[in-house]
Amino acid sequence: MRKFMSMLLAATMVLSMGLTSVAAKVKAPILRVDDEHLTIISEGKKTDYEMKESEIFLKKNGEKGIAVQFRDKKNVKKKIALGEVRSLTIEGELDRLVLPSTFDQNYKITIHEDAEIERLDTNGKARIYVEGEVEKAYLNTPHAYIKIVEDGEIEKVYAKDRKSINSESSSGVKEFRSTGS
């Protein structure tokens, strides 16, 4: 009986390590925007949408997920659930990207090196990594976190103070404007 239990425990450990390594290999979904055309690449599937405007609002989907909200060509609000993921990569050109207050520090949004975002609004604690370009970033909470990586750049940052900005590049933020107390 003891030998059987030891073998069962060993098999359970091997199986759980295998599942963990499979889960770790799942890539974060990608949102690619070109004018008013949105492509979502998730779990090997590519889905295309036409948007009225190049504006995306990220929402919380359940306890662990992300949903993408936008208006289609007919001005109908669309909400696309990406499943139980907490990471997302943004590529291409986008007029506006809004992150909700419900995103905590376990959510990671990467602005890819080829991305250009005119306006970024963050209302929560999500970790935002800027590898590309952001014209204006509005950090609407003292808990906002933006890290400028490598050649990433933000033209203007509007925030209460500079504590929310973490930069690996000395030229990462061109201009900072305080929004007061």
Rg over CA atoms: 19 Å
Estimate the global geometry from the Cα principal axes: globular
Average of pLDDT: 84
Helix content: 10-25%
Task: Give the percentage of residues in beta strands.
Answer: over 45%
Task: Count all strands and give the number.
Answer: 15
Between the first and last Cα atoms, what is the distance in angstroms?
Answer: 67 Å
**Count of individual helical segments:** 1
Low-confidence stretches: 19-24
- H/E element order: HEEEEEEEEEEEEEEE
Major β-sheet annotation: 15 strands, mixed
Number of domains: 1
What would you say this structure looks like, in words?
With 181 residues, the protein is mostly beta strands. It has one domain (27-178). Helix content is 13%, strand content 50%. The protein is built from one helix and 15 strands; from the N terminus they run αβββββββββββββββ. The protein has one helix spanning 2-24, and strands at 30-34, 37-42, 45-50, 55-61, 65-71, 77-81, 87-99, 108-111, 116-122, 127-130, 133-139, 145-148, 153-159, 165-167, 173-178. The chain has a 15-stranded mixed β-sheet that branches. A hairpin with a 2-residue loop joins strand 2 (37-42) and strand 3 (45-50). The chain is globular.
